[in-house]
Amino acid sequence: MEEKIGKIKTKEITEEMKESYIDYAMSVIVSRALPDVRDGLKPVQRRILYAMYEDGLRHNAKFKKSASVIGAVLAKYHPHGDMAVYDALVRMAQDFSLRYPLIQGQGNFGSIDGDEAAAYRYTEARLSRIGEEMLRDIEKETVDFVPNYDGTRKEPVVLPSPLPNLLLNGSLGIAVGMATNIPPHNLKEVCDALIYLLDHPEADTETLFQFIQGPDFPTGGFIYDKKGIIESYAQGRGPILVRGKAEILEDERGRPRIVITEIPFQVQKSTFLEEIARLVEEKKIEGIKDIRDESDQEGMRVVIDLQKDSYPQKILNSLYKFTDLQKVFHLNIVCLVDGILPRTLNLVELLKHFLAHRQEVVTRRTKYDLKKAKEKAHILLGIAKCLENIDKVIKIIKGSENRETAAKRLISSFKIDEIQANAILETKLASLAKMERKKIEEELRKTKQEIKEFEEILKSPKKIKEVIRKEILSLKENFGDERRTKLVPQKVGEFSQEDLIPAEEVIITLTKGGFIKRMSPKEYRLQKRGGKGMLGIKTAGEDLVEHFLLSNTHDQLLLFTDSGKVFKIPVYELPKEKRSGRGKGIFNFVEISPKEKILSLISLSEKEKEKFKYLVLVTKNGIIKKTPLEEFKNVRKSGLIALNLKEGDLLVSAKKTGGDDEIILVTKNGQALRFKESDVRPMGRQASGVKGIRLRKGDEVLGMEIIEKTKKGRGHLFVVSENGFGKMTEIKDYRRQKRGGAGIKTAKVNKKTGSLVSVLLISEEKELFLISQKGKILKVKISAIPKLSRATQGVRLMRLEEEDKIVSALSV
């Protein structure tokens, strides 16, 4: 006999796959991966909490084996894998995963190190106080129930949840084609925002940020950029920069160390430490001596011991850049609205959906309470009616054959219903006493008052809001705590290489052959005046040192060439080498032609850009030009025109000025001219300049110094000659003249001294560096140099080898 199997319908396989996949995707979205906006829970979490509530595992009950809880959840509501259920239970008990854990765990529930929880046969659990609150009033028909998977019992569609758990504890879920990533928040702040939104439903996200400061992670740390965070919450998605808490301290011996007491949310401490160790091994981070994990029950403490000569801030910045000590939390508020519709919500929308849920819960609870109060009043009314004629009641009961007969007689005699009659029959004899009858009457009066109040609440949306407000304030008082994650309003951008380099003074040398380097002034020990100096650079063949400059690693180095171009290099990019290091070719850093010769160097810092307005350039033929510093702001790698040089002329010096300073020019034959900066009008980069000093035959300008207006002409002019002689003369000995003059004598130049090669304006006691062509450097105290009159040759500062000459001098 042929069995009927139904109608067979032909369908394209692609269409069937499409429909089936969409069905599967929606099942994952609704039944597994995304939380509900109302209680902030996924189905498995909701089922765990409800099963524990059914089993009486309140916050003050005895702990029960997790295996028992898992078994109940699997048997009654969630017929899936036991480990999936246990993992969800464990996470709800971890104080480093949830800001306000919903379950209290006893035993090993894992750690921030990434350790897994013990098997569920070893651990025990019960609801936490706040977890129990999530289910408050669930027995009062406040939420809908649906049949479980096998139809043997019912389970809640959503929990009453008097708190917005979705914000308090956040959520992480990956569905099909969508994901959610919501951080935890502070309960006090969320409660304040909810109360404000009750009174101001038109409020926007920015307004609510007077209460909610952003995420409040259980692991603490810092979040940055308030403006950017507000934008993310207004859109429901966006990046939030998070940093751990790290301090640079010193140990008992004064050696530097970095102490980390908080790490970003969802970062495993053990993995983080392994990451640091790997970076040290690969030499991406240098200067770390030892890493110790000193964490205990009191809290986290990771100690990173540093080498004595290391730069702690540089190492800390490297940790921020290369490890998870700094990471971005990608906010993505995707959740189920009305239990079925996945949506991206902003902060205001999320809170409004929660408040709508609370209004529904309070309304349904009030209706339930009203119904119960009316039932109670109905019974009390019947009892009170009968107690007025208690003798007749007793007589009826005594004269009845059974309970049913007594009930019927009471109903007919006192005009009451069956419910009231049964209540009278169940009343204890003790209640017949005079005082007990008064209690029943008082209880009836109170119940009638409750009925009136419930009816008034249901008639007035305003009163429903007032009930919600009181409950929120109560929860804030009972469960509120202080914020753990600190908000830093300022923005933290991506780290540049400069952020990883400590700001420190350096000496820059550039040879005639184009080799450049930077080194620390500490590389040189102090010597006496007249010494031979120390080897400062190894020059190859006939290569000689030409330029010697003091700078800072965070400064920009401007290089001026004989073609009139200017190039720019960040000082930290220059190779850091020891005294004898040769350096690297300048062609590694700028696109300079091999035919071009660098004539002058100048260092420029960010602070100086605020202080100085102009760049003054002077050539060997005495031509001077002043150009606004702003025009050198964007110097390309291929260079920028700085000065239009005439044939046969060379740039010898470049200095920064404030606009109202004085300029002093010095020539190699010992002439000096002091004049006002205002004598030189500002010009564009393409201009050639004007005459600064009138030179005698065979003379040329060797350098320039700026007498700042703020220093009122104090200090000394220091000059040094090529054969190692030098002296200082008070600046007041140089009278102010007009630009274009011949100047006055500043030093006696002869065959013994040789031509002047360097000039410095010294306004305080410092140390002096002299460098020779062969790379010898002498470091002496300025106080060792005599103060002499203008027309003297000076004293011997450095004893030079044969055929060696002084190239330059600088003070530090």
Give the beta-strand count.
41
Distance between the termini: 110 Å
Helix-strand category? alpha+beta
Q: Kindly state the percentage of residues in helix.
A: 25-40%
What is the 3D form?
elongated
What is the beta-strand fraction? Answer: 15-25%
Average pLDDT across residues? Answer: 87
Q: Which value, in Å, is the CA radius of gyration?
A: 43 Å
The residue ranges in which pLDDT falls below 50 over 5 or more consecutive positions are none
Q: How many domains would you count in the coordinates?
A: 4
| The CATH class of the largest domain | Mainly Beta
Side by side, the strands of the main sheet go 14-9-8-17
Task: State the CATH architecture of the largest domain.
Answer: 6 Propeller
Please work out how many helical segments DSSP would assign.
18
Give me the CATH fold name of the largest domain: Neuraminidase
Largest sheet: number of strands, sense, barrel closure? 4 strands, mixed
- Identify the CATH homologous superfamily of the largest domain: DNA gyrase/topoisomerase IV, subunit A, C-terminal
